[in-house]
Amino acid sequence: MHPNITKVLFTAEDIAEATRRMGAEITADYAGKKLLLVTVLKGAFIFMADLMRQIQGDVEVDFMAVSSYGAEASSSGVVRIIKDLEAPIEGRHLLIVEDILDSGLTLSYLQKNLRSRHPSSVEVATLLFKEGKQEAEVSCKYLGFVCPDEFVVGYGLDYAESYRELPYIGVLDPLVYGK
Q: What are phi and psi of 93, to 5 degrees?
Protein backbone atom coordinates (compact mmCIF):
# COMPACT_ATOMS: atom_id res chain seq x y z
CA MET A 1 0.00 0.00 0.00
CA HIS A 2 1.19 3.51 -0.84
CA PRO A 3 2.42 5.39 2.28
CA ASN A 4 -0.06 8.26 1.72
CA ILE A 5 -3.06 5.90 1.68
CA THR A 6 -4.68 5.37 5.07
CA LYS A 7 -6.85 2.42 3.98
CA VAL A 8 -7.89 0.51 0.89
CA LEU A 9 -11.64 0.71 0.24
CA PHE A 10 -11.89 -1.36 -2.95
CA THR A 11 -9.24 -3.82 -4.09
CA ALA A 12 -8.34 -4.53 -7.70
CA GLU A 13 -10.39 -7.73 -7.41
CA ASP A 14 -13.42 -5.82 -6.04
CA ILE A 15 -13.19 -3.38 -8.94
CA ALA A 16 -12.86 -6.16 -11.54
CA GLU A 17 -15.97 -7.91 -10.19
CA ALA A 18 -18.01 -4.67 -10.16
CA THR A 19 -16.89 -3.92 -13.72
CA ARG A 20 -17.93 -7.42 -14.88
CA ARG A 21 -21.34 -7.00 -13.21
CA MET A 22 -21.92 -3.57 -14.72
CA GLY A 23 -20.77 -4.76 -18.16
CA ALA A 24 -23.29 -7.61 -18.06
CA GLU A 25 -26.11 -5.20 -17.10
CA ILE A 26 -25.18 -2.78 -19.89
CA THR A 27 -24.90 -5.63 -22.41
CA ALA A 28 -28.42 -6.79 -21.55
CA ASP A 29 -29.91 -3.28 -21.65
CA TYR A 30 -28.34 -2.29 -24.98
CA ALA A 31 -28.68 -5.59 -26.85
CA GLY A 32 -29.09 -4.82 -30.56
CA LYS A 33 -28.28 -1.12 -30.10
CA LYS A 34 -25.15 0.79 -30.98
CA LEU A 35 -23.81 2.35 -27.80
CA LEU A 36 -21.50 5.36 -27.45
CA LEU A 37 -19.52 5.51 -24.23
CA VAL A 38 -18.80 9.13 -23.36
CA THR A 39 -15.92 9.17 -20.99
CA VAL A 40 -14.89 12.07 -18.84
CA LEU A 41 -11.12 12.47 -18.77
CA LYS A 42 -8.95 12.00 -16.97
CA GLY A 43 -10.24 10.15 -13.95
CA ALA A 44 -12.57 7.73 -15.73
CA PHE A 45 -10.29 6.52 -18.52
CA ILE A 46 -9.07 3.39 -16.71
CA PHE A 47 -12.57 2.42 -15.61
CA MET A 48 -13.96 3.06 -19.11
CA ALA A 49 -11.32 0.85 -20.73
CA ASP A 50 -12.06 -2.02 -18.34
CA LEU A 51 -15.84 -1.54 -18.58
CA MET A 52 -15.78 -1.41 -22.39
CA ARG A 53 -14.06 -4.80 -22.49
CA GLN A 54 -16.93 -6.24 -20.44
CA ILE A 55 -19.69 -4.99 -22.75
CA GLN A 56 -20.71 -7.39 -25.52
CA GLY A 57 -22.05 -5.61 -28.59
CA ASP A 58 -21.50 -2.61 -30.79
CA VAL A 59 -19.65 -0.04 -28.66
CA GLU A 60 -17.83 3.14 -29.62
CA VAL A 61 -16.08 5.64 -27.38
CA ASP A 62 -15.58 9.38 -27.32
CA PHE A 63 -13.95 11.58 -24.74
CA MET A 64 -14.69 14.83 -22.99
CA ALA A 65 -12.56 16.72 -20.56
CA VAL A 66 -14.35 18.85 -18.01
CA SER A 67 -13.06 20.51 -14.92
CA SER A 68 -14.57 21.64 -11.65
CA TYR A 69 -11.73 20.66 -9.31
CA GLY A 70 -8.36 21.88 -10.59
CA ALA A 71 -5.81 21.03 -7.90
CA GLU A 72 -8.38 21.31 -5.10
CA ALA A 73 -9.84 18.53 -3.00
CA SER A 74 -13.44 19.59 -3.56
CA SER A 75 -15.49 20.77 -6.52
CA SER A 76 -15.53 24.48 -7.25
CA GLY A 77 -19.03 24.16 -8.74
CA VAL A 78 -17.89 25.94 -11.91
CA VAL A 79 -17.79 23.49 -14.81
CA ARG A 80 -15.63 24.09 -17.87
CA ILE A 81 -15.58 21.92 -20.99
CA ILE A 82 -11.93 21.60 -21.90
CA LYS A 83 -12.38 19.01 -24.66
CA ASP A 84 -15.70 18.33 -26.36
CA LEU A 85 -16.92 15.28 -28.25
CA GLU A 86 -15.57 14.77 -31.75
CA ALA A 87 -18.71 13.43 -33.44
CA PRO A 88 -22.37 14.52 -33.48
CA ILE A 89 -24.52 12.55 -31.03
CA GLU A 90 -28.02 13.25 -32.33
CA GLY A 91 -30.04 10.03 -32.36
CA ARG A 92 -27.34 8.01 -30.56
CA HIS A 93 -27.53 6.02 -27.33
CA LEU A 94 -25.06 7.55 -24.87
CA LEU A 95 -23.65 6.14 -21.70
CA ILE A 96 -21.64 8.66 -19.68
CA VAL A 97 -18.89 6.78 -17.89
CA GLU A 98 -17.73 8.50 -14.71
CA ASP A 99 -15.24 7.63 -12.02
CA ILE A 100 -17.06 9.18 -9.06
CA LEU A 101 -20.36 10.90 -8.39
CA ASP A 102 -20.14 13.15 -5.37
CA SER A 103 -21.71 16.64 -5.55
CA GLY A 104 -23.27 15.84 -8.92
CA LEU A 105 -22.69 19.40 -10.14
CA THR A 106 -20.34 18.42 -12.97
CA LEU A 107 -22.40 15.43 -14.08
CA SER A 108 -25.68 17.37 -13.94
CA TYR A 109 -24.17 20.04 -16.18
CA LEU A 110 -22.79 17.40 -18.53
CA GLN A 111 -26.14 15.56 -18.79
CA LYS A 112 -27.99 18.78 -19.62
CA ASN A 113 -25.37 19.75 -22.18
CA LEU A 114 -25.47 16.37 -23.92
CA ARG A 115 -29.29 16.10 -23.84
CA SER A 116 -29.48 19.45 -25.63
CA ARG A 117 -27.78 17.74 -28.58
CA HIS A 118 -30.77 15.35 -29.02
CA PRO A 119 -29.36 11.87 -28.46
CA SER A 120 -31.80 8.94 -28.32
CA SER A 121 -30.87 8.29 -24.70
CA VAL A 122 -28.42 9.41 -22.03
CA GLU A 123 -27.59 7.20 -19.05
CA VAL A 124 -24.79 7.21 -16.48
CA ALA A 125 -22.42 4.51 -15.27
CA THR A 126 -20.27 5.48 -12.31
CA LEU A 127 -17.76 3.41 -10.44
CA LEU A 128 -18.24 5.28 -7.14
CA PHE A 129 -21.20 7.06 -5.59
CA LYS A 130 -20.67 9.20 -2.49
CA GLU A 131 -23.97 8.89 -0.69
CA GLY A 132 -25.33 12.09 0.84
CA LYS A 133 -22.97 14.42 -1.04
CA GLN A 134 -25.29 15.33 -3.91
CA GLU A 135 -26.00 18.99 -4.51
CA ALA A 136 -27.63 18.36 -7.91
CA GLU A 137 -30.12 15.74 -9.10
CA VAL A 138 -28.37 13.08 -11.14
CA SER A 139 -29.78 9.70 -12.07
CA CYS A 140 -27.25 6.92 -12.26
CA LYS A 141 -28.36 3.68 -13.91
CA TYR A 142 -25.18 1.64 -13.38
CA LEU A 143 -23.28 1.78 -10.11
CA GLY A 144 -20.12 0.05 -8.97
CA PHE A 145 -19.88 0.96 -5.28
CA VAL A 146 -21.32 3.28 -2.68
CA CYS A 147 -18.34 5.13 -1.29
CA PRO A 148 -17.86 6.75 2.12
CA ASP A 149 -17.44 10.51 2.26
CA GLU A 150 -13.65 10.45 2.21
CA PHE A 151 -11.12 11.73 -0.30
CA VAL A 152 -10.34 8.72 -2.48
CA VAL A 153 -7.63 8.11 -5.07
CA GLY A 154 -6.38 5.28 -7.25
CA TYR A 155 -7.66 3.42 -10.31
CA GLY A 156 -7.67 6.67 -12.29
CA LEU A 157 -8.77 8.96 -9.47
CA ASP A 158 -6.18 11.53 -8.52
CA TYR A 159 -5.17 14.32 -6.25
CA ALA A 160 -3.22 17.00 -8.17
CA GLU A 161 -2.47 14.45 -10.95
CA SER A 162 -0.94 11.88 -8.56
CA TYR A 163 -2.11 8.40 -7.46
CA ARG A 164 -3.99 7.48 -10.68
CA GLU A 165 -1.71 4.46 -11.18
CA LEU A 166 -2.75 2.67 -7.99
CA PRO A 167 -4.59 -0.59 -8.84
CA TYR A 168 -7.02 -0.11 -5.94
CA ILE A 169 -9.12 2.74 -4.53
CA GLY A 170 -7.95 4.05 -1.20
CA VAL A 171 -8.41 6.93 1.19
CA LEU A 172 -5.81 9.67 0.85
CA ASP A 173 -4.22 10.83 4.09
CA PRO A 174 -5.76 14.26 4.88
CA LEU A 175 -2.31 15.61 5.69
CA VAL A 176 -1.48 15.32 1.97
CA TYR A 177 -4.24 17.68 0.86
CA GLY A 178 -4.34 19.96 3.87
CA LYS A 179 -7.39 18.91 5.85
A: -90, 120
Q: How many CB atoms lie within 10 A of CB 65?
A: 13
Query: Inter-axis angle of helices 45-54 and 12-29, to 10 degrees?
Result: 60
Q: How far is CA 125 from the centre of its chain?
A: 7
Cβ 89 vs Cβ 78: under 8 Å = no
Instruction: Clarify whether 102 is annotated catalytic.
Output: yes
Q: Is the pLDDT of residue 109 over 70?
A: yes
- Active-site position among 50, 84, 99, 102: 102
Q: What pLDDT shows up at residue 148?
A: 93
How does pLDDT run across 149-164, given as a tens digit for each residue? 999 999 999 999 999 9
- Distances in Å between the Cα of 175 and the Cα atoms of 158, 169, 178 are 15, 18, 5
